[in-house]
Write a structure and sequence with these properties.
CATH topology of chain A: Rossmann fold
Number of helices of chain B: 12
Shape of chain A: globular
Helix content of chain A: 40-55%
CATH architecture of chain A: 3-Layer(aba) Sandwich
Oligomer: heterodimer
CATH topology of the largest domain in chain B: Rossmann fold
CATH class of the largest domain in chain B: Alpha Beta
CATH class of chain A: Alpha Beta
CATH architecture of the largest domain in chain B: 3-Layer(aba) Sandwich
Number of domains of chain B: 3
Strand order of the largest sheet of chain B: 11-10-12-13-15-14-20
Number of strands of chain A: 6
CATH superfamily of chain A: Thiamin diphosphate (ThDP)-binding fold, Pyr/PP domains
Distance between the termini of chain A: 21 Å
Shape of chain B: globular
Number of helices of chain A: 10
Strand order of the largest sheet of chain A: 2-1-3-4-6-5
Radius of gyration of chain B: 24 Å
Strand content of chain A: 5-15%
Helix content of chain B: 25-40%
Number of domains of chain A: 1
Largest sheet of chain A: 6 strands, parallel
Strand content of chain B: 15-25%
Largest interface: A-B, 46 and 41 residues
């Protein structure tokens, strides 16, 4: 596997290399990378290089970047199948992520997982789960392990508003509350189920799990709420729910024309998270147009290289069919 | 005037029980309602109360006595006032001598020993399930573990099979070694998604990056008079899934050695116990660290005329059938599969090469079952060795009925195995 462009430099932590010290320019760059990566994934899907399902994260970038900023190194992340952004935010190599989506040998799972099934335990990223809601129970187990070891880690568990109705989510909340597990459940409310805004934050009320609904399209709002919830969990305060309202710009997957979304359906009032961060940088005099163009070019180059790699990496050898079924 | 304290019954069907423990000694004063002893059966434990106040004049049945018939007098209580002097303190129970372990062991105790030994050996091992802690386990396999290891490592979960199975897999992702107990594998269907989609597939889907060292264990298969939802054999269901290892032991030594191996295994293991074997005694395993490899069958009885392949409770039936066949000078070889995935076909093929005949015993349903798999593999891999078609002896293709007579008809018997064996030998039955 090729070295990640975000590979830590000497003396720098992985997170440091990716997001600086939460530097507003690095935050912009991270969100832009996810956006451009997903746009490229959409293109490759259209060209037939990516098969099956491909769930894009366009519009939701501020959530995972904000939560990464709020977390410490070694805190665990776990998510649904809509997780390419989570992988990148955790520091996975964009080439390996995209090559997995094209089903190639250089992919993160050697081509055997696909878009929905990628894992990077060395980066404390535990998947990528194709069954809606599965990560709620699995993430609760990661938090159980943290509590068992008393190692001060917190699990950040992402799922969508659709998954929030799964029975195992309610069961997981019950277990996490009962054992005061260090976990923050982030509900990415991209409104696949209409009319639930603000309600999802209250899903833990019966278990005395505090919840907060917030604008998931503002990375600073996400960072602030995430920092508080994670600190509380780390201090032994137990689980919390953060409902992030967000506008998903595409259908559920690229195979979904999103006909259930009416053209005249009101869009979120919040502007695009990347645009918003861009305005912030320009307004504060942190960057000018020329500088931002350079960042865009740099990000486009990373994504273009990843796309080349994903298209050219050979398919797995036939013998791989039988490997890794058991350890 | 002394009254007799009688062995009580826990249920209308109970005929015998074990007198586990006396809580009062001879000469001790008891009040009516005081708990004086504990008894147990296969299914439950119960406390025996004194019906009247008085002094325990004589204990008639000693502690540890097995098979005490219901209504047997177990003590005499003399109607007496409380003596002025305090009764002598009860003697401490003799400690078990580690250098001289018991010669025989029940499957239940074997499983408990395996859990305790592995928990002592590795602090990452924990047990989680319903009633496993202070409640001592629904089938009492985890009895005493909470006292030794505490609530942190013997975790009582609420009735949330779906989530706690997933929680176990997540904890295994993080490097712990969970042993998840299902009160019964019937309830594992609630957790099937995490067993199949999360535990079994993650290693493969991650390209080898993330393994899942977890054990799911509990009773599977038939159980007396509990009806269709609580007496199902899911051996074939689990054995169907790549990425799982599936173990179904018969003897106490194998139960112990395989559970220890399963806990140390880096991959998910489905450990299928059997309610009707928990209380059965077997020769105890020798040696300090008794391990049995996963994926190795055992020749439980050698013979030259016909091979009987069985697993779990079915091995007991097969051995009894072999005894009956021996009376007719038919020498059956009984193979205890012990592991259902990966299947040790080499041992089965070796035996069939010798006998040329095979009866496959499976208490589960016939279609797509373990016996069917054995039969298909023999047809593919040992066609030329076979002198007769493989015979299957399985449970009937019906949900388990409740009525005692129908339930009996639904399950395979040793007589069925004898008939099938003779059929493969073209003998009249």
């Amino acid at each position: 596997m090729a070295a990640s462009p975000f590979e830590p430099q000497d003396g720098e932590s992985r997170l440091g290399a990716f997001l600086g010290d939460g530097d507003d320019i690095a935050v912009y760059r991270a969100m832009l990378l996810i956006r451009r990566f997903e746009e490229k994934a959409g293109q490759l899907f259209g060209m037939g290089l990516i098969g099956g399902f491909c769930h894009l994260y366009i519009g939701q970038e501020a959530i995972v970047v904000g939560m990464r900023l709020a977390s410490r190194e070694n805190d665990q992340f776990i998510a649904s199948y809509r997780h390419h952004g989570h992988l990148l935010a955790c520091g996975a190599d964009p080439r390996a992520v995209l090559a997995e989506m094209t089903g190639r040998r250089g992919g993160l799972s050697g081509g055997k997982g696909g878009s929905m099934h990628m894992f990077a335990p060395e980066l404390d990223y535990f998947g990528g789960h194709g069954i809606v809601g599965a990560q709620a129970s699995l993430g609760t187990g990661l938090a159980f392990a943290n509590s068992y070891r008393g190692d001060g880690r917190v699990c950040v568990c992402f799922f969508g508003d659709g998954a929030a109705d799964q029975g195992q989510v309610a069961e997981s909340l019950s277990l996490a509350a009962r054992w005061r597990l260090p976990i923050v459940y982030v509900i990415e409310n991209n409104r696949s189920v209409p009319g639930q805004d603000g309600e999802l934050a209250r899903r833990g009320a019966a278990f005395d799990i505090p919840g907060e609904a917030l604008d998931g399209m503002d990375v600073e709002v996400v960072r602030a709420a995430g920092t508080a919830a994670i600190a509380r969990a780390r201090a032994g305060g137990g689980p919390a729910i953060l409902e992030m309202r967000v506008e998903r710009y595409r259908g559920h997957s690229l195979a979904d024309p999103a006909k259930y979304r009416r053209k005249d359906e009101p869009r979120a009032a919040a502007p695009d998270p990347i645009e918003r961060q861009r305005e912030r940088l320009l307004g504060a005099g942190r960057a000018d147009e020329a500088f931002l163009k350079r960042i865009d070019a740099e990000v486009r180059a990373i994504v273009a290289e990843a796309a080349d790699y994903a298209a050219q990496s050979p398919e797995p050898v036939a013998a791989e069919l039988f490997s890794q079924v058991l350890t | 005037m002394a009254t007799r304290l009688l062995m009580p019954a826990l249920s209308p069907e109970m005929k015998f029980g074990k007198l586990t423990r006396w809580l009062k000694r001879e000469g001790e004063h008891v009040q009516a309602g005081d708990i004086v002893a504990e008894i147990e059966t296969e299914k439950a434990t119960m406390e025996v109360e004194a019906a009247e106040s008085g002094v325990i004049e004589r204990i008639l049945v000693p502690e540890g006595a097995e098979k005490v018939a219901v209504n047997t007098p177990i003590a005499l209580i003399a109607a007496m006032e409380r003596p002025a002097a305090p009764a002598a303190p009860p003697e401490p129970a003799p400690a078990e001598d580690e250098d001289f372990p018991p010669l025989r062991l029940s499957v239940r105790d074997a499983l408990r020993e395996a859990l305790a030994e592995e928990m002592r050996r590795d602090p990452l091992v924990f047990v989680l399930g319903e009633e496993v802690g202070e409640s001592q386990g629904a089938a009492r396999v985890t009895q005493g573990l909470a006292q030794e290891f505490g609530a942190k490592r013997v975790v009582e979960a609420p009735i949330t099979e779906h989530a706690f199975a997933g929680l176990g897999v997540g904890a295994a992702f993080a490097g712990l070694k969970p042993v998840i107990e299902f009160m019964s594998f019937n309830f594992a269907l609630q957790a099937m998604d995490h067993i199949v989609n999360s535990a079994a597939k993650t290693l493969y889907m991650s390209g080898g990056a993330l393994n899942v060292p977890i054990v799911f264990r509990g009773p599977n298969g038939a159980r007396a008079r509990v009806g269709a939802q609580h007496a199902q054999d899911f051996s074939a269901l689990f054995a169907h899934i790549p990425g799982l290892k599936v173990v179904a032991p018969y003897s106490a030594a194998d139960a112990k050695g395989l559970l220890k191996t399963a806990i140390r295994d880096p991959d998910p293991v489905i450990f299928l116990e059997h309610e009707m074997l928990y209380g059965q005694d077997f020769p105890a395993p020798r040696g300090k660290d008794h391990l049995v490899p996963i994926g190795a069958a055992n020749i439980a009885r050698a013979g030259r005329d016909v091979t009987i392949v069985a697993f779990s409770h079915g091995v007991g039936l097969a051995l009894k059938a072999a005894d009956r066949l021996a009376e007719e000078e038919i020498e059956a070889e009984v193979i205890d599969l012990r592991t259902l995935r990966p299947l040790d076909m080499a041992t089965v093929l070796g035996s069939v090469a010798k006998t040329g005949r095979c009866v496959a015993v499976d208490e589960g349903w016939p279609q797509g079952g373990v016996a069917s798999e054995i039969s298909a593999r023999l047809m593919e891999e040992a066609f030329d060795d076979l002198d007769a078609p493989v015979a299957r002896v399985t449970g009937q293709d019906v949900p388990m009925p409740y009525a005692a007579n129908l339930e009996k008809l639904a399950l395979p018997t040793e007589a069925d195995i004898v008939v099938a064996a003779k059929k493969t030998l073209y003998l009249k039955t």
